[in-house]
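User: Quick one: structure for sequence A, then sequence B.

Assistant: Sequence A:
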Amino acid sequence: WLPRRAFTFSYAAPGASGVVRAAALPTSGGGTPAGGAEYLYVKHASGPRQPLHEPAAVLPVPSHFARDRILLPATLAAVLLTLLAVRPHLGVPLNDDFSYAHTARALAESGRIVYNGWASPMLWPQAAYGALLIKAFGFSYTALAASGIVLAALATATMYALARACGAGPAPAALATATLTLNPIFLGVTPSFMTDVPSLFLLLAALLALVKALQPGEAGDTRLDPKRFALSVVLGLVAGSNRQIVWVAYFGALVTLIWLLPRQRRLVAPAAVLVLVIALALSRWFGDYPYTVPTSVGQGLLVLVGYTNVAVMFIYKVANMMGLFSLPMGLLAMDKRRWRSLAFGVLLLLCLVPIFYPLGTKVALLGRDYRLTAYGQYFTSRGVVVGGVSGFENRPTIFPPLIITACVVLGAVGVAVTGIVLLDWWRGLRRTGSQARTLPDVATSAVAVASLASVAASLPWFAIMNIFDRYLLLYLPGLLVLFARAASERPMTKTRIAAAATLLAVQWVTGYGTVAEYMNYTRARAALY
């Protein structure tokens, strides 16, 4: 999993009485000899804590390079070809991006960040590259929306690299990447100037830089490379200045490193404090402007106290949708013995109760909008509708209630699977001491906590309002990386692969169909003006 640099590992040497520590160095040419094996020079030691000697053997190991060269381009091609197949209509604003486009235009013309009263995240990096595009091509929604497709390709490659850097094998890494980038949410929000895909790419880049900063120490522990770590901190700050929730995710990753790497706290703790102070200061500056309309604390308390069932339902809907879109990887990640465990049965029952037993006299999950794709497309008993909760007249009914129910049930299964995988991950961390945790363990944990921290920070907001599904894109990567790492340690049986591939294919086809339908509708509306 670290093919291009030296690393240490332990193995049972043939004829040896115990575990031997060794260090492997890639061949100078970095090539793959015949037979699909790559040769590593190995320096042996006489014991786990003994000094390493000069190269004493050449160890052939299975090569992942060939599969990387196939799977990553294949995943990229699938994403880009799907986006081209939906025939994106790029010449008009598709959602809130009309506001973001005018912020970029104001920056290009005046050199200042100007907000216009519409709800907006901080938007600094996106406004900057949008201004560059406007200066180069003139103000055009086509150029701004096309940049979303470019960033989608970069996000796809970065997600794959992140999963591989955290110890996932090529196949699980490719499946995790496809689960993130071939679902209806990602496909629907990409051909636009919305903040979702740019913020996702920036978050993935910051986390990848953080993982790459982790280095194997001479004593078998994990240390941080100061220069790479500094780069990751800068990227984390930049990413949060586009959408502030990314600061929470990156801060969660830093706190995880403080916990798992006690010897690196002198380096990580000041960085975490710096990120926290800058994030709070910029958030205060941003919130003091008159264009912001903050949610009333009093209103939120009224909702939580007077309409607790509504708050619980909103939170459950978020969890249910995350479970639905992460289920393909969850099927590969969960230990097959856990499917028959009492813990999974109880958790699944708890996740199914809100579906069939309304939480209030007028509030039932299946009777509410279940959002499937961005731009106001909703997965409801009426099918896919476009343009808001009420939709437009004469829209086709695509999905009958039976399919809606099936998807919500699958989402509940996904929530239960996610809970079990997280529980097993937590138990594994608790069982191993700081010296026994491997570099992939540390990297995967930091990335997973990044997702969990952003979800936890958003729960109060989720509780008092209905949430657009596109917000969930930033919460999925860490969980998918954790699933990919767990799947790499499980036997990839034909049954598991078939089930995961089927669910992924259904999401892919659904994403293509709904986004293509929306683009056709947008094209027809634009032709009227």
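Sequence B:
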Amino acid sequence: MASSNSKETNFKVIKLMGKEVFNNKLCRDKVKDKTLEILEVLKQVKINIPLLDMIKQMHAYAKFLKDLCIVKRMIKLSKKVFLTEQVSAIIENKAMVKYKNPGCPTISVKIKDSFVERALLDLGVV
């Protein structure tokens, strides 16, 4: 109880000094506390906006993306990219020449009286 009496006396002393000084100091402390609480809450806020909603809401982004898709203008990039042979061949439309299937290598063979017109040739590949 002694502590509550001391708090009351301190309160009265501060009150006697002037209402403005006491009120301003109390308000500043409350504002700082609320500001810190709001800051902590805002740090936890995450916003997920779908792409189409973003485009509808932001005219500049919509215009840029529309021009990029429709006009297909070249954007100047100053970065160099090194590609492998397979990727550069795809980009440059270099296709390998496709040959037709030669079929089976055949020869005509005559053994004594029998004649085989299309016998398979042994190429010796193991």
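The longest strand covers residues 114-120. The helical segments are 2-17, 19-44, 51-57, 59-70, 85-91.

User: Thanks, that's what I needed.
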